[in-house]
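Below is how a single chain appears once it has passed through the pipeline. First comes the sequence as given, then the structure the pipeline wrote out for it. We keep one example in the README because the format questions we get most often are answered faster by looking than by reading.
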Amino acid sequence: MTVQKRYLCFDNSYITKFCFCLSSSILCILAFVAGSSSHHENGNETDGLRLIPSDHTVVRYTNESLIVLCRNTLADTKVHWKSPKGDIIKEHKGRIHIEASPTSDDVKLVFMHISLADKGDWSCEHAGGGDKASKLFNLIVYQKITFTENTTIQTVKEGTNATILCEVKGEPQPNVTWHYNGQPITLETNSTKFRILADGLLINSVTQNDTGEYTCRAYQVNPIASDMQERTVLLKIEHFK
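Resulting structure:
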């Protein structure tokens, strides 16, 4: 029996051919994939450089660590890392340093105890002359909420002004609200009694009625997480004699 076949083929941008073989009794799909060995899921590597991890943006909190490998696949070439300021990283130890592979031209960039000053574009590039191929990643650094004060009890004299300190650090900068015995302090109704400072709360002419717990609540929101931290100070009023 003679089987007549007809072929319907499609070419896509990756030079992949799908041929549908049609006959009276058979439907078969043949896939042929041809392409350059330099094509990868992480993009074209004709420049011979690849970062691992390959994320263009890397997010870390302060005091965390990070290692990024620059893989060099071009023979007889060297690579180096540059900071966001354009400085070549040459140190082989320290908070930020490089580690060269003993068996290849790959170079690791190592961060220990990341700081806010480390944010920016870090690039790996060929060290030779001419047009230098490069790969970069953007390091974004956040800082969790921290309080610089740890006092939990404060005593002031009746009739004086009291300042309850609450200096908050974080990146992005946290928003701060104040509460007295669990209730929010609103300046709309207490503008003469309270004044919110950059690093605390000012209470004018304290009386025995101002005794209680004052809570500083800090809120922080960034693209990957949100957080709320608080510290409470018990204010005691010393009777005026």
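The helical segments are 187-190.

See the next section for the split statistics.
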